[in-house]
From TrEMBL:
PROSITE patterns documented for this protein: ISOCITRATE_LYASE
CDD domains found in the cross-reference section: ICL_PEPM
UniProt xrefs under InterPro entries: ICL/PEPM, Isocitrate_lyase_ph_CS, Pyrv/PenolPyrv_kinase-like_dom, Pyrv_kinase-like_dom_sf
Pfam family, one: PEP_mutase
Name used for this protein in its record: Carboxyvinyl-carboxyphosphonate phosphorylmutase
One Gene Ontology term of the molecular function aspect: methylisocitrate lyase activity
Signal sequence segment: none
Catalytic activity: (2S,3R)-3-hydroxybutane-1,2,3-tricarboxylate = pyruvate + succinate
Lineage of the organism: Eukaryota, Fungi, Dikarya, Ascomycota, Pezizomycotina
Species name: Exophiala bonariae
């Protein structure tokens, strides 16, 4: 981004040939710099974020359920739904790390391992797995149901085992950052939630994710109590966690901040208004005075034309 006062990983250089997971690990090692990842849920929202030079993206599960299924975040999106969406987003610019929601892992240890292997092979840099029941719900809704701690830890252990198997087969090339998420704060309290996360870290999770914090003290304490493990902050505007800017989160000690509704929120507001205007018969004006061609340019039209020409194609010799 042209001007960014936030101490973030936006300036992180990417080594030639480096995997997205390796880049994310490099970003996490940068002391005093927070990884800032806007929430994206389809190719368009991902392109718009990439055009603003974000150096990490987050694929939101709620946004995936909304865009692919037209449904609320109630655990209806399957592993295949999530993997297909994440794979497409990660492919748009393989240099940029994508952290993707993996919900509960979609079953027992064998299913969790299948999920992790699929995410790794798709080039996804990081994923988070939680301790809700398989028929889960958004972390900012009430009355979430949890699995026993032993079940949660079996999910994390399966994820770590699957990653280590692929690392061994590829001599360390295939990798993914495993983020352990707990939704137990609401029902079990802070100490029990921290204990769950610490046990997940002990068996190989790389990052901790305490969902549903309701006070700034909880935000401050989780970073302190789990140090030196990186902690992720889920900044859901309109959710139950107090709003923190990326700078405030960085100052409290968080190493990753995700904004799941960064694209989804404006769609609810602006597209709904556009539909109302269309229904009422109002004249439709190009947003931002941009026409069809300009919109396609934002989606990589020039790069596609250049690639076609370099390969010897003639489809665009007269332009488009």
């Amino acid at each position: 981004m042209a001007s960014n006062p936030i101490p973030s990983s936006q300036e992180t250089p990417k080594a030639a040939g480096q995997t997205a997971a390796a880049t994310l690990r490099q970003q996490l090692r940068q002391t005093g710099k927070i990884v800032m990842a806007p929430g994206v849920y389809d190719g368009l929202s991902a392109r718009l974020a990439l055009n603003e030079d974000f150096n990490c993206l987050y694929m939101t599960g709620a946004g995936t359920a909304a865009s692919r299924l037209g449904m609320p975040d109630l655990g209806c999106a399957t592993m295949d739904d999530m993997l297909a969406n994440a794979s497409m987003i990660a492919s748009l610019d393989p240099r940029i790390p994508l952290i993707a929601d993996a919900d509960t892992g979609y079953g027992g240890p064998l299913m969790v391992a299948r999920t992790v292997r699929g995410y790794i092979r798709a080039g996804i840099a990081g994923l988070h797995i939680e301790d809700q029941v398989v028929t889960k719900r958004c972390g900012h809704l009430a009355n979430k149901e949890l699995v026993d701690e032993t079940v949660f830890l079996s999910r994390i252990r399966a994820a770590v085992m699957a990653r280590e198997e692929l690392r061994a087969l590829s001599e360390g090339v295939q990798d993914i950052v495993i983020i352990a998420r707990t939704d137990s704060l609401e029902s079990l309290g802070y100490e029990a939630a921290i204990a769950r996360l610490q046990k997940a870290i002990d068996i190989g999770a790389d990052v901790a994710f305490l969902e549903g914090m309701t006070t700034r003290d909880q935000c401050r304490n989780v970073c302190r109590d789990l140090a030196p493990t990186p902690v992720l902050l889920n900044m859901v505007v309109g959710g139950i966690t107090p709003y923190l800017s990326a700078k405030e989160a960085n100052d409290l000690g968080f190493r990753i901040i995700i904004f799941p509704a960064a694209a989804l929120g404006p769609v609810f507001e602006h597209v709904a208004q556009a539909m109302k205007n269309l229904k009422s018969g109002a004249i439709q004006k190009p947003p931002g005075n941009r026409g069809v061609r300009e919109h396609f340019m934002l989606l990589g039209l020039k790069e596609c034309m250049d690639f076609d020409a370099a390969a010897g194609g003639v489809s665009f010799t007269r332009g488009a």
